[in-house]
Structure formats: C-alpha cells, structure tokens
Amino acid sequence: MSFFTNVFGSSENEKPSKVGWRILTDLGQLNEIIELSHQQPVLIFKHSTRCSISRFALKNFENEYDFSEEELQAYFLDLLEYRSISNEIANRFEVKHQSPQILLIKDGKCIYQESHDGIEVESLKRLVK
Asked: Is the pTM value of this prediction over 0.70?
C-alpha cells in the first residue's frame, strides 16, 4: 500500500488528490519552506490520521483545491508520525498547535492559519490569487 492509501484510505469511488502534496518528514524541510516562501506562498496542512474531523476537512479541502504549483506549494504533515515537526511549526511560526490545521507561509512568516471547519480554499484564494 502507498503512503497516501495508508493515510487517506482507499475506495474505488474516490478520486485521486488534485493537490501536488510534498510530504513533510524532516525538520530541515522547514528551512526550505521558509526560503521558498520568499518566492511563492507555501501551504502546510497538518493532519491527524486518527481523527475523522481531520479526514473530513482534508477531503473537503482536496475537493475544492484548484491552485497550480506555480501559485502555491502544498506540504502535508502527518502530525501523529511527525509530532516534533508539528511542535516546531508552532514554535517557528508562532501559532497554536491544532489539528487539522492549515498555515499559509509567505516571506518567511505565517500570514494565515485556520483549523477544523474553518479550513477552506476560498479563504486562501483571497490571499494567494
């Protein structure tokens, strides 16, 4: 089974994700995200693989997502597997840890964050497009 099948489950009726997720698995990637954010906005989606609310938020987000990789780079964090990275995200970007949670990083700073049912693509469009 692939990583995404393990995380998101599998169903013959499910469409593959439209999001070109980059998987966040190493603390060093946070430095890359900060550097990249000076050239283009970067999204971090923090997901709890054991939480039905997080799964629901992720599926809705993926269904609405319509950014190109030139507009927005999207990173996915399995926060149960990589809790230390989640903690460092909260520390570096001065945000309270939540799950599920999205953060929009621009010019090295978190300019927007939202969690739970507040996670929606429309809010990002106003900031990115």
From this structure: yes
